[in-house]
Amino acid sequence: MIQPAPDRDARVGEPPGHRDRPSGHVVVPGALDLTHNVILYLEDISVSFDGFRALNRLSLAIDAGELRAIIGPNGAGKTTMMDVITGKTRPDEGKAFFGQTLDLTRLTEPQIAHAGIGRKFQKPTVFEHHTVFENLELALKADKRVRRTLFARLADDERDRIAAVLARVRLAAEADRLAGLLSHGQKQWLEIAMLLVQEPRLLLLDEPVAGMTDEETERTAELFVSLAGTHSLVVVEHDMSFVAALGGKVTVLHEGAVLAEGDLATVQADERVIEVYLGR
Ligand SMILES: Nc1ncnc2c1ncn2[C@@H]1O[C@H](COP(=O)(O)OP(=O)(O)OP(=O)(O)O)[C@@H](O)[C@H]1O
Ligand SMILES: [Mg+2]
């Protein structure tokens, strides 16, 4: 069973004795504490659905600026792990921290997004009847850190921010096109751009290159490599040539736990990994 959040209105960054204020005063501190250079820390996370353990004491640490690939067979728990990190699913047990101090198991989904974790689901969800630029404008205005109305005009620095992100995802030439007219790969990039304008510290990407052409897949790998360092990225993907192009550490999930971790060549040579993939 998924337990409801034990204390959904817990204030973050305050000692426990200070949780007795009325709700509505929820504050997520802006500064992320990266003292030990770890941006995401999961320890012994378990999630059960009707007695089935989708995550089984999963532990994982992602360094600040890291580009981590997560692979594993269907049903391994990869998406469920992202659900836990983003607050969509509450773990039955275990710890989940963003930086040193933000306890993700005590934050709501909007608070987690606000704290700097952006997530991209597999299917692109862009506004097809708006232009590429307007999509980014809407994403920027949805950023709760900025107090504004939907009708307020963009400030110059916000236009610059959008332009920089458009260039980064190679959609600058498409700014005035309707999003619905983009290729599947371009829609995926637009959705990544919509995350980027909100300046997340950690990006979670679930099967970002599914359905892309080989060229789009290569460009996506280049984009993620370029984002690493200034961002931390956790990328779930089945496409091994894409994972190889990312060039970072790879974590193999199986039956809700980490089976192996290391560079791609090392995990691919691991007997247990081969067994899981070949079903022997
Ligand atoms: N809401 C839910 N209710 C019941 N079972 C669920 C739920 N979400 C996930 N599961 C089960 O948990 C297991 C892990 O699912 P999950 O979607 O995390 O796997 P995955 O590694 O992302 O797989 P895929 O590669 O196919 O996307 C699966 O057996 C799935 O059926
Ligand atoms: Mg999945």
Explain the layout of strands and helices:
Layout: E1 38-49, E2 52-63, E3 67-71, H1 78-85, E4 93-98, E5 102-103, H2 109-115, E6 117-120, H3 132-141, H4 156-168, H5 184-196, E7 202-206, H6 214-227, E8 232-236, H7 240-246, E9 250-254, E10 257-262, H8 264-268, H9 271-278
Parallel strand pairs: 3-8, 3-9, 6-7, 7-8
Antiparallel strand pairs: 1-2, 1-4, 4-5, 9-10
Helix pairs in contact: 3-4, 3-5, 6-7
Bound molecules: adenosine-5'-triphosphate and magnesium ion.
Explain this structure:
The chain has 280 residues and is α/β, with parallel strands linked by helices. It has a domain at 125-199. It is 30% helix and 22% strand. The protein contains nine helices and ten strands. It has helices spanning 78-85, 109-115, 132-141, 156-168, 184-196, 214-227, 240-246, 264-268, 271-278; strands spanning 38-49, 52-63, 67-71, 93-98, 102-103, 117-120, 202-206, 232-236, 250-254, 257-262. It has a six-stranded mixed beta sheet, sandwiched between helices. It has a four-stranded antiparallel beta sheet with strand order 2-1-4-5, with helices on one face. Strand 4 and strand 5 form a beta hairpin. Helix 3 (132-141) crosses helix 4 and helix 3 (132-141) runs parallel beside helix 5. The longest helix has 14 residues, at 214-227. Adenosine-5'-triphosphate is lined by residues 49, 54, 72, 74-80.
How would you briefly describe this protein structure?
With 280 residues, the chain is an alpha/beta fold. The protein has helices at residues 78-85, 109-115, 132-141, 156-168, 184-196, 214-227, 240-246, 264-268, 271-278; strands at 38-49, 52-63, 67-71, 93-98, 102-103, 117-120, 202-206, 232-236, 250-254, 257-262. 30% of the residues lie in helices and 22% in strands.
